């Protein structure tokens, strides 16, 4: 492609990315995908995958375009599928609709596809250009790529901390560390993940609802997961009674007797293997993946954060950093002993920082040691 053609293709792919983002948190165990149909430089239809089992983004756009799809160009954030699942293959639908060219962002890592969709289109005479805004398209579905290639959810650790790395005072007061803009962003994050997790200590101390609260009730509640190894949490907690369409999963050690206590409808118990006296996080993630949870948001507390980091199970860290200093006796967002040598400190890479009101949102990826 020429430079101008590349610029035009990237512009239309950005529209497809905006479509795909509408499905985040709503499509698991499927990816979020957006598609745009263009004819003579004009957008004739857009579509996104809205829910698992529903029509894929390409098919939504084709249906909206009707006869205008013939001879049009399609821009899709993810390689069109090539296999029969709950819906017919999108690559076949594109051939039948007479689409002229297809521009693809990400290659599909699913072994059922992984190049087969592109190959089918090319065999059918469709010109395919792959890798348009690939980094942006890959980033959009990083959680699903992890899920489909490893069989476990993508894990994001999230904490609101002071400038000196504290999430609460020495007496446990954490309201409010971050500002209003950060809290609003945290709710937007909950809206886009499949599940949110806290430990028993955080559940007991903060009594959170773990729901999504966005303006005009637009938020979608994720599945709520609480680690309660011995089932010792009081049944009065909001997690067990707050009305939500999303279930609450109580992860506990296998063999612990489930008490006969009244909890709200939608509360479920999840028996997990034991590892060193605690819930085996590997087993927990396997069980969550089996429920179609592809993106897990871990909101603490400090012991839970440390466990995910120690086990090498954290894929991303999000820190809402407030311009405050709590002091040395305040509680760090990561519990446990400190390292003796700086060379042993956990390294992070891919650092990005952006302002949120008076706070900063710091995003980074833990370096996985061999």
Description:
The chain has 370 residues and is α/β, with parallel strands linked by helices. It has 11 helices and 18 strands. The protein has helices at residues 3-21, 57-65, 90-97, 116-123, 134-140, 142-150, 180-192, 200-206, 238-241, 281-290, 302-310, and strands spanning 34-39, 42-48, 73-78, 101-106, 127-130, 154-162, 166-168, 195-199, 223-227, 248-253, 267-272, 274-275, 278-279, 295-298, 316-322, 331-332, 348-356, 359-366. The strands form 4 sheets. Strands 11-10-9-8-14-6-15-18-17 form a 9-stranded mixed sheet, sandwiched between helices. It has a 5-stranded mixed sheet with strand order 2-1-3-4-5, with helices on both faces. A two-stranded antiparallel sheet has the order 7-16. Helix 3 (90-97) packs parallel to helix 4. The two termini are 40 Å apart. The model has no long low-confidence stretch (mean pLDDT 92).
Structural descriptors:
370 residues; alpha/beta; 9-stranded mixed β-sheet; 5-stranded mixed β-sheet; 11 helices; globular; oxidoreductase; DHFR-like_dom_sf; Riboflavin_Biosynth_HTPR; EC 1.1.1.193; hydrolase
In short:
Keywords: Hydrolase, Metal-binding, Multifunctional enzyme, NADP, Oxidoreductase, Riboflavin biosynthesis, Zinc. Its cofactor is Zn(2+). By secondary structure, this protein is an alpha/beta fold.
């Amino acid at each position: 492609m020429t430079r101008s053609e590349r610029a035009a293709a990237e512009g239309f792919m950005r529209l497809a990315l905006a479509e795909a983002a509408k499905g985040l948190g709503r499509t698991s165990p499927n990816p979020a995908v957006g598609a745009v149909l263009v004819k003579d430089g004009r957008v004739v239809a857009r579509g996104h995958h809205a829910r698992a089992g529903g029509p894929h983004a390409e098919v939504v756009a084709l249906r909206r375009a009707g006869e205008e799809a013939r001879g049009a160009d399609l821009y899709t954030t993810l390689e069109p599928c090539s296999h029969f699942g709950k819906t017919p293959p999108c690559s076949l639908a594109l051939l039948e609709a007479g689409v002229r060219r297809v521009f693809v962002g990400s290659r599909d890592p699913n072994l059922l596809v992984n190049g087969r969709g592109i190959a089918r289109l090319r065999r059918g005479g469709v010109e395919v250009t792959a890798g348009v805004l690939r980094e942006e398209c890959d980033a959009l579905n990083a959680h699903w790529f992890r899920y489909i290639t490893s069989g476990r959810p993508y894990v994001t650790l999230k904490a609101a901390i002071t400038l000196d790395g504290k999430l609460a005072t020495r007496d446990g007061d954490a309201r409010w560390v971050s500002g209003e803009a950060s809290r609003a962003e945290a709710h937007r994050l909950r809206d886009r993940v499949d599940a949110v997790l806290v430990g028993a200590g955080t559940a007991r101390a903060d009594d959170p609802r773990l729901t999504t609260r966005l303006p005009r009730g637009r938020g979608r509640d994720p599945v709520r997961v609480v680690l309660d190894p011995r089932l010792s949490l009081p049944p009065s907690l909001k997690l067990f009674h707050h009305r939500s369409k999303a279930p609450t999963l109580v992860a506990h050690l296998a063999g612990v007797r489930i008490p006969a206590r009244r909890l709200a409808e939608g509360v479920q118990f999840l028996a997990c293997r034991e590892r060193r006296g605690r819930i085996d996080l590997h087993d927990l993630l396997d069980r969550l993946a089996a429920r179609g949870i592809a993106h897990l948001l871990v909101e603490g507390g400090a012991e839970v954060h440390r466990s995910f980091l120690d086990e090498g199970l954290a894929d991303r860290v999000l820190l809402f950093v407030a311009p405050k200093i709590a002091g040395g006796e305040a509680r760090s967002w990561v519990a446990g002993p400190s390292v003796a040598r700086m060379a042993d400190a956990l390294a992070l890479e891919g650092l990005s920082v952006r302002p949120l009101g008076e706070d900063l949102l710091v995003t980074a990826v833990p370096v996985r040691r061999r």
